[in-house]
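Subgroup meeting minutes
Present: P.N., E.W., G.H.
Scribe: E.W.

1. P.N. recapped why we're keeping a running log of single-chain structure predictions: easier to compare across weeks, and new members can see raw inputs and outputs side by side.
2. G.H. added today's entry (392 aa).
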Amino acid sequence: MPETPLAGVAERAARRAQVIDALADAVGTIARPGPVRVALDALGHDGAHSLADDLAAALSDRRRRCLRASVDAFDDLFRGGPARGGLARPAVAAWLRRAAGDEVLVLDGSFLQHAAFAGAWDLVIFVRDDAAVPARAAPPGLDRDGAVARYLAEADPEAAADVVVDLSDPGWPVIRRIDPAVADRVGRDLHRAETLAFFAPRAASWEDRFPDDEVAYATAVADLGVRAGQTAFDVACGTGRALPHLRRAVGPAGTVVGIDLTPEMLATARRHGRHADAALVLTDARRLPVRDGSADAVFAAGLLPHLPRPAEGLSELARVARPGGVLCLFHPSSRVALAARHGRSVRDTDLLARPTLRRLLEATGWSLENYEDGPDRLLAIAIRTGEGAPGK
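Output recorded in log:
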């Protein structure tokens, strides 16, 4: 479990209210005739059930008529229950038939993104609870762990959902991903507030959680190939683990800038003395307050999966890099290890898979020069080509 965030009951209640309000906004933007069907898909019931109750209450406060239900589709789907196909799950099908008019149906349960429910939902919220993910992928079978492993492998429910809510700490929910189309309908940028809500309470002990990463950062900076006298940006620098290594690479005549969105992360960087190695700048990686072509090298550890529109983020990094400048996308874990943290299997279509990443880079002004995935790190080195469509 993550650290208990922020101090008091009031702050935690306000955080939950913010998330519920954003989810209710997302539901409210759905325009379709007849009832709106919302599924909260989860592998552990308690957190999703409570979240669904709060969402239904918020919608009722907005004068939307709601129906609430919970279902565990395990028996139907994995124990040879009623006939398969479409919405032939009896409990769910009967519940769906109850709705009429403009009601909102709010259902929480497990396996709700199984192929048997294809087309059933107008909005899917996946509730991530790390404690509910099995530690290993058991062989498919009638046991629940095996069914969960099979579901994760076949449906990839986190990636398929419209919204992902992190409930690792049930008292401090955070929206970790929202489909850009849904975010556009909501009409406000949720990314900033939710990123701060996730990283701020973890900043003070971030390096305690990952104590063995120092060598990996040093090696990645060496692979970046930045030289003495050059300018290097560390975008989404977090607690600044790369900054001393970048400073040694550029020397006293060079420039190092550490950029992050979260004040608490930069405060931790200062506590470790890394402000002596770099100028620390509090800003959004999607809109960097620097001139075009001002960086010789850009280092970005773990940034891309946290951006709502990765292509736009890569375009912004291309804008600030000079032609011929170098980009290092890095994570001190392999894709397999990263996926396993959330019970996922790696796929060729994943954001950080070589084919997907190459296409994104080429479309945003970069050329992928080197790619490594595992066993202990993910590393992609790209060169600024001067082509593509950098953001402004």
